[in-house]
Amino acid sequence: MRGLRQLASWGLALFLIFMFVQATLHPVGEAQPGMELLLDPAGENILFHTMAEKTGLSWLEPEARYAVSVLILVACLLLLIPHSRRTGAIIAVFLMSGAIAAHLSPEVLGREIPAAIGSEENDTGRQFSLVTAMFALSMLLIFVHPGKKPETLRR
Known about the structure:
By secondary structure, this protein is mainly α. Helices cover 58% and strands 0% of the residues. The protein contains five helices and no strands. Helix 1 (2-24) packs antiparallel against helix 5 (126-144). The longest helix has 23 residues, at 2-24. The two termini are 19 Å apart. The relative contact order is 0.15.
């Protein structure tokens, strides 16, 4: 049973790392302008530009975006190391909780984000679905990852 939990832990961790890195540094396939958290030029990220515009908080783009990107990369590093995997998953849960809260607040972001800055088209909720799935997988990893064996069982 422990071996299966360890295998599931590695699978979930590697999938989460892949998804977080591709969202932070470079999307898989054709890179859509405005969807890279860390590498987009200031003012051109769709998510944080929309939040800054709707809330009037100009520090959301790019300062908060860079801070979130660094936290995501720290979570990825922690997810990669088995002894710190649960901590990385907890950080991911907090980050995805914030993203879900932003998506559920129409005055902050909304469930459907614009396809491009200033566009009338939207993503039909794909980003919200992805964030929700990442939250669920991070929560699952917290519970699936096998912990240390108690001292009494190590004989």
